[in-house]
Amino acid sequence: MSAIKLGIVGCGIAVKELHYPALMELQDLFKIEGVTSRTEESADACAKLFKTRSYAYDNLLDRVDAVDIAVPTHLNYEMIKKALDARVNVICEKPIAENVDTGKKIVELANSSEAMLYIAENYRHSAVYAKAKEIMKRIGKPEFVLYSRFQHMEKDVKYAATEWRKNPKHIGGFLSDGGVHDIAALRMVMGNIIRVKAFVSRARDYLGSCDTMSASLLFADGALGTYSVSYGLAGENIFCISGTEGFMKIRSDRRAIEVITEKEGKELGVEEESIEEENTYKKEFIDFYEVVNGKENSLGSPAEALEDLRVIEEAIKSSEL
Ligand code: NAP
């Protein structure tokens, strides 16, 4: 299989800090043909980094087999549409869209296109969640999950400082930007979430929107869960699943899972499964390459990415009722 001619769309934090290092290790799979961005300045700096040239988007599309889109989320629809219309394959950063309505339109575009759309959700490539799913049978029937994420951001943290996050057009600001990762992880391990009810609040005025949420989840198999998240407050990250025969704790650095089995209230054993260090961005580009070359698109599925966003949007909207 030959290298994919890839164009880079957007030259911000995701491209420079996450995609560039991964793509540099995958030069046999991807040949970077050019970049485009909003400002000439940024495009030129990025072209220099990738040792290529910058182009207007239409011209870039004429030169490539695929584009890597990492722009403010509310621009995904127009960027994806242009590429698919030009029969250019797309890998686009999560969340799929700024809201579910636009996300649905993107899924329709993808379903009717001859080119392929892959939504890059790096948590779907994280070995720890696949391992946790495997461990599930050791803890019996899952009954309850506790998931908390605290990512306290000061005003000058790079993500908080981007203009499009300060004035978000994407629902719930950081709650959807970061929240889709958490829902992807929860769904990978626990299956689909069929109902959600939440309250939201705003702890920091500089974060652009609500930044804190407490949600109750109902999973398709009847298990319950709580999802607590804050981008404005500090706290402890927890992912703990309780089943009828024990429980497991996923370490917050995602490098180990502790499994505690029990019977009739008595502890039977404690084991720790460790996870090798990995670059999930590199894994998603490898998967994208394989999907372009005919593999089924399960980890980059637009419909799955839409479902992650649907849960977050439903949670935020439930708090308004
Ligand atoms: P960012 O640093 O603000 O970068 C956004 C880039 O988009 C900038 O280079 C900007 O151009 C460019 N842009 C803006 N408007 C444009 C337009 N009309 N045409 C072309 N380019 C345009 O944002 P970011 O943090 O990289 O986020 C980008 C995407 O990556 C988002 O979807 C975000 O959710 C995702 N992301 C994912 C992860 C992850 O862990 N998976 C982490 C971070 C971000 P200029 O530089 O020219 O202004």
Q: Can you walk me through this structure?
A:
The chain has twelve helices and 13 strands. The chain folds into two domains: 4-123 and 280-295, NAD(P)-binding Rossmann-like Domain (Rossmann fold, 3-Layer(aba) Sandwich); 125-276 and 310-318, Dihydrodipicolinate Reductase, domain 2 (2-Layer Sandwich). The strands form two sheets. It has an eight-stranded mixed beta sheet, covered by helices on one side. The protein has a five-stranded parallel beta sheet with strand order 2-1-3-4-5, with helices on both faces. The model has no long low-confidence stretch (mean pLDDT 96). Strand 4, helix 5 and strand 5 (117-120) form a beta-alpha-beta unit. The N and C termini lie far apart (53 Å). It is α/β, with parallel strands linked by helices and 321 residues long. The structure holds NADP nicotinamide-adenine-dinucleotide phosphate. Residues 10-14, 18, 36-39, 42, 70-73, 75, 93-94, 122, 162, 164, 177 line the site of NADP nicotinamide-adenine-dinucleotide phosphate.
Secondary structure elements and pairings:
Layout: E1 4-9, H1 13-24, E2 30-36, H2 40-49, H3 57-63, E3 66-69, H4 76-85, E4 89-93, H5 100-111, E5 117-120, H6 127-135, E6 142-150, H7 158-161, H8 163-166, H9 174-177, H10 179-190, E7 193-201, E8 212-219, E9 224-230, E10 238-243, E11 246-250, E12 256-263, E13 266-274, H11 280-292, H12 302-318
Parallel strand pairs: 1-2, 1-3, 3-4, 4-5, 6-9
Antiparallel strand pairs: 6-10, 7-8, 8-9, 10-11, 11-12, 12-13
Helix pairs in contact: 1-11, 4-5, 5-12, 6-10, 10-12
The structure holds NADP nicotinamide-adenine-dinucleotide phosphate.
